[in-house]
Amino acid sequence: MDLVTVKFLHVLSSTFLFGTGVGTAFYLFFISLTRDARTVAVVARYVVVADWIFTATTVVIQPVTGFYLAHRLYLPLSTPWLYWSIVLFVFAAACWLPVVWLQMRLRDVAVAAVAQGRTELPAQYARLLGAWTALGVPALFSFLAIFYMMVAKRLPFGWGA
Questions:
Q1: Domain regions of the chain by residue span
Q2: Which residues face 120 on adjacent strands?
């Protein structure tokens, strides 16, 4: 595959990864604040589906295309901005795995509440949402740093200076 095509796929998949992550997190977080079990159940279903369709595929595409590009461009993985991009990607992916499980639990709790005729979410939902948020925030900042390093080809904020 030619370099331009792989670079295009890398940029496109990073856009899907970040855009889907921010978009679904925004909707799930703010709809959860309403505590309306019916609405949350519907939105959470689509958040889980979007995460599996877009995020799961891009979590695979990103390292494959990234390592290919580094190889083709003779860029050592020890290059500081690339090394830290990889470290932060692994960290963000490690946050994402439990986030997906938490999203499925959030969906299930909301669906169960609706099935029980409840209009408000139970306390368990708030606890799960707190854990989901605690994992999502560092992943978000990791991806912001990665985006900066991919564009600037240097470490942000004087890291390693």
A1: 3-158
A2: 36
DSSP for 8-59, written as a single string: HHHHHHHHHHHHHHHHHHHHHHHHHTT-BHHHHHHHHHHHHHHIIIIIHHHH
Query: Which residue has 């995460």 as its token pair?
Result: 51
Q: Which stretches in the chain have pLDDT values below 70?
A: 160-161
- pTM tops 0.85: yes
3-state secondary structure of 159: coil
Task: Give, in order, the Cα–Cα distances in Å from 7 to each of 14, 60, 61, 152.
Answer: 11, 15, 11, 16
Asked whether the CA dihedral 16, 22, 23, 24 is positive or negative, the reply is positive
Quote the CA–CA distance of 50 and 52 in Å, as a whole number: 5
Give the Cα-Cα-Cα angle 126, 127, 131 (nearest 5 degrees): 115
pLDDT of residue 30: 97
Which of 149, 13, 147 has the alpha carbon at shortest distance from 68? 13
């989901």: which residue's tokens? 132
Cβ(45)–Cβ(104) below 8 Å: no
For residue 5, what is the DSSP state? Answer: H
Total Cβ atoms within 10 A of residue 155: 17
What pLDDT shows up at residue 160? Answer: 63
